[in-house]
Design brief:
The complex is a heterodimer of chains A (224) and B (578). Helices cover 17% and strands 36% of the residues of chain A. Chain A has one domain. Chain A is an alpha+beta fold. Chain B is of the alpha+beta class and 578 residues long. Chain B folds into four domains: 203 residues, no CATH class; 130 residues, no CATH class; 107 residues, Immunoglobulin-like, CATH 2.60.40; 89 residues. Chain B has twelve helices and 36 strands. In chain B, the strands form nine sheets. In chain B, strands 2, 10, 11, 13 and 20 form a five-stranded mixed sheet that branches. In chain B, strands 6, 7, 8, 12 and 21 form a five-stranded mixed sheet that branches. Classes of the chains: A alpha+beta (224), B alpha+beta (578). Chains A and B meet through strand 7, strand 8, strand 9, strand 10 and strand 13 of A and strand 10, helix 3, helix 4, strand 13 and helix 6 of B.
């Protein structure tokens, strides 16, 4: 299950000072695949039929070769001995896919009018708030946090990717490798991506920090 | 109450010409997988951001990737010579070019989508101007301590234009080289590249009124609780938030426009100018600094990210002095216009499944033994069998070992080593030949050499072997002769009864460059078991020539000659007299 958290007014918001908002600023949609989409109407001085969706659907990205996920166990001392280290490389992305976006646009137009359109996801900016956090209050969570070797900035647009490279050694490898044998071991590990809104949306959608969160077991369920 | 009305119009725009090239950030729309923005002042003219999927390894005109992974192996001279299997030195060099670009078909699809949405007059005219670009490399293999040099950079400057190429080259230690090769065999190798593209655009137009109630501001504790008049930027921001909460300051936007980042930046800047004066921390009297220096230090500490945050246009770590606020009544400020904002766009990609396509193609993946033959040398050791050591006390004075190597260059290397009884007291390294590579391109042939041994025996005998072809790294010396016992058998009683007085046995055999002769006389009363020959024969010599003479009591003699190779001579088999 996708978990999206909209953190209201974490830093500074003038939402409590603003008046004159339209009544259709936020629209909740449920797509045929049960994906819940929240659309925000961009209301400015200039009239607009423009809607943006809040980020959702954190997942492992796919290329033509399949899911962009690899785990390579190895033993640098002796090939004949069991692996003692491993490198995990994966790419994360988020957002509606093409079919979902078409369906969301259709539902939006049904609900508002045919002039309404889905412009994309809400604009995000890159700052220190934007980052990935690996949540998990157990040895496995600790092993993954300690083993995250390099990573890229979080994606600001749907379809963009965030690359992560983990280097597991010794005990951390053992913990992670054992967990792979039973994917439910990752139920308590969650990947949480913090995103920062550019802040041009309306009061009903006033968000400062957006959190996308998913269990690691769900992220990799179609990979392993 | 005296009302002070301030009217200000802040136009944050530059000259119209400069703006005409700017995109309107708040009018972005995603079409055909591309983010498209209208140009300010020309709503029919759109620009696109490079495709998020547009990162890739550069391909040449034939569609082949500009990529190579060379693993090289060099002999490690530091390895012990006692090991027949040892670790060679070497590593790997991986080179590749990357770029980001947008598929023309994607651009066409995006333009068609824009036309469908906004009318046929809309055009998608090129990419958004990228003002700065950096790359980030995500890899455990390439960026950890696996690279042999510290020059590997995980991040750096990147091209700002689409199709601009960026070259990567990494020199890897052997272990990392192997890891990378194995990683390349996976669909998602441990190399991802992220282009971080910076661009600018205009905010949406805003109109807002800022109302300051000075009476409330003066009564507020937002900037008076600590008793200090010096603040850092972060505290100023918190204080402004507090004033907004207390409605000492209110912001009313015109229409439905609201908390745009650009508007807030402008509002905060104006409030700052009204209420504060920036100061150099060093100029603040020590007794008035309060906790300001600590606060500045904290911003650079563990939460160091804070000092790069600049939400309101003034640095959070800058220092400010609160002005003496004498204003009363209300102040109204009007804001309208647009602001220039900086944004970032990321193009990320994994280098992908190169190995399955090109793993067998030597143009892309190659292992090479990398050494210069001209610097090679061959060591050939002399090994001496333990039995030979004893012979140096008995029969052998010395052995000269010669090695001859005929090179491909027509040069010939000839070397010799003298082995004597002192040999065993010296280190083995003194008894090795070394020859170089003189245009010996065929390594199998280069290994071949010839050797010869020259033996000098006690008493002056010499044995010179033929030249022997060999390939091994060891010439084993073994004694070129054999010891053999030739015993005499026979019934002495019978010989006595037959009237024989004595039997003389002579043997004759070659010993290298001489002929050795020995004889034994036997009488019927002798103990035959003590009558035997101990001979030393060359290895290839099996036969010993013998003659046996039987002498009767009357002086007559019978003689027989022959060759023996079994080591027994029967002296009671008397040939018949003719």
């Amino acid at each position: 299950m996708n978990i999206t958290i909209w953190s209201y007014s974490i830093l500074f918001s003038t939402s409590f000072l603003i008046s004159g908002l339209s009544q259709e600023e936020k629209i909740n949609l449920v797509l045929s695949d049960q994906t819940e989409v929240i659309l925000c109407h961009q209301v400015s001085i200039e009239e607009s039929n423009r809607y943006y969706y809040l980020p959702l659907n954190l997942r492992i990205s796919r290329s033509s070769a399949g899911p962009e996920f690899s785990f390579m166990p190895f033993n640098t001392i002796d090939d004949n001995k069991p692996p003692s280290e491993g490198i995990l490389h994966l790419l994360l992305t988020w957002g509606l896919d093409t079919d979902q976006r078409k369906e969301a646009t259709r539902l939006l137009q049904q609900q508002v009018d045919t002039h309404a359109y889905l412009a994309g996801s809400i604009p995000l900016i890159h700052d220190e708030i934007s980052h990935l956090e690996i949540i998990g209050d157990n040895d496995l969570g600790q092993a993954m946090r300690h083993s995250l070797n390099s990573s890229a900035p979080v994606p600001l647009t749907p379809g963009s990717k965030m690359a992560l490279s983990f280097k597991f050694s010794n005990e951390n490898f053992r913990i992670f490798n054992n967990a792979l044998e039973n994917v439910s071991s990752f139920d308590k590990i969650r990947f949480r991506v913090y995103l920062k809104s550019a802040g041009i949306i309306t009061r009903a959608c006033t968000v400062d920090k957006i959190i996308l969160e998913k269990k690691f077991s769900e992220l990799i369920e179609h990979v392993l | 109450m005296r009302a002070l009305i301030l009217g200000c119009v802040f136009l944050v725009l530059g000259i119209q010409f400069g703006l005409s090239q700017m995109i309107q950030l708040d009018k972005g729309i995603r079409m055909g997988g591309l983010w498209c923005f209208p140009v300010y002042g020309d709503s029919l003219n759109y620009k696109y951001l490079p495709s998020s999927d547009g990162g890739r390894i550069v391909v040449d005109d034939e569609g082949l990737p500009q990529f190579s992974f060379l693993r090289y192996i060099i002999e490690d001279p530091s390895q012990s010579s006692n090991n027949t299997v040892s670790q060679a030195d070497g590593g790997g060099i991986v080179n590749f070019l990357v770029e980001y670009s947008t598929d023309p078909q994607q651009i066409t699809a995006a333009e068609e989508g824009l036309k469908e949405q906004f009318g046929n007059d809309v055009q998608l005219n090129g990419a958004v101007l990228i003002t700065k670009a950096r790359y980030t490399l995500v890899s455990s293999v390439l960026t950890e301590d696996g690279a042999s040099k510290n020059e590997v950079l995980a991040t750096g400057e990147a091209p700002v234009l689409e199709n601009g190429q960026l070259a990567f080259s990494f020199d890897l230690l052997p272990e990392r080289s192997k890891l990378l090769l194995e990683s390349f065999k996976m669909a998602t190798p441990d190399i991802s590249i992220i282009f971080e593209l910076g661009f600018s655009g205009l905010s949406d137009y805003y109109e807002a009124d800022l109302h300051v109630d000075w009476n409330k501001v003066n009564k507020s504790k937002a900037f008076g609780a600590g008793g200090s008049i010096y603040f850092i930027g972060a505290d100023v921001e918190v204080g402004f938030d507090e004033l907004f909460q207390e409605t000492a300051i209110t912001l009313n936007t015109v229409g439905s426009n609201q908390n745009m980042e650009s508007l807030l930046n402008t509002v905060y800047d104006r409030l700052l100018a009204m209420m504060f004066k920036e100061v150099e921390p060093a100029s603040i009297p020590t007794n008035e600094q309060g906790g300001l220096m600590d606060a500045v230090g904290a911003l650079f500490g563990s939460s160091g990210a804070l000092n790069s945050r600049n939400l309101t246009g003034f640095g959070l770590n800058a220092s400010f002095k609160l002005k003496e606020l004498k204003s009363k009544g209300n102040a109204n400020l009007k804001f309208q216009g647009r602001s220039t904002l900086d944004r970032y766009h990321f193009v990320s990609f994994n280098v992908g499944d190169l190995y399955s396509k090109y793993g067998q193609d030597k143009k892309f993946f190659r292992d090479v033994p990398l050494y210069d033959k001209a610097f090679q040398q061959r060591d050939v050791y002399i090994g001496v069998d333990g039995s030979l050591e004893k012979e140096f006390e008995k029969m052998v004075n010395n052995v000269t070992v010669k090695l001859k190597k005929e090179h491909n260059s027509t040069e010939t290397t000839i070397k010799e080593i003298l082995v004597n009884k002192n040999f065993f007291q010296n280190s083995a390294d003194q008894f090795k030949f070394t020859y170089l590579n003189h245009e010996d391109h065929d390594m199998q042939e280069w290994m071949e050499y010839q050797y010869q041994t020259i033996w000098q025996f006690v008493g002056g005998g010499i044995f010179e072997s033929d030249w022997i072809r060999a390939k091994s790294a060891m010439i084993n010396l073994y004694t070129p002769f054999q010891r053999k016992e030739i015993v005499l058998e026979g019934d002495l009683e019978y010989l006595k009864e037959e009237g024989y007085r004595a039997i003389v046995v002579r043997i004759e055999y070659p010993f290298f460059n001489e002929t050795r002769k020995e004889s034994i006389s036997v009488r019927p009363t002798d103990d035959l078991s003590t009558k035997l020959f101990n001979v030393t024969l060359p290895l290839e010599q099996e036969d010993v020539h013998y003659s046996i003479t039987w002498v009767k009591k009357d002086g007559t003699r019978i003689q027989e000659e022959g060759n023996d190779n079994i080591g027994i001579l029967f002296i009671d088999e008397i040939p018949l007299e003719e």
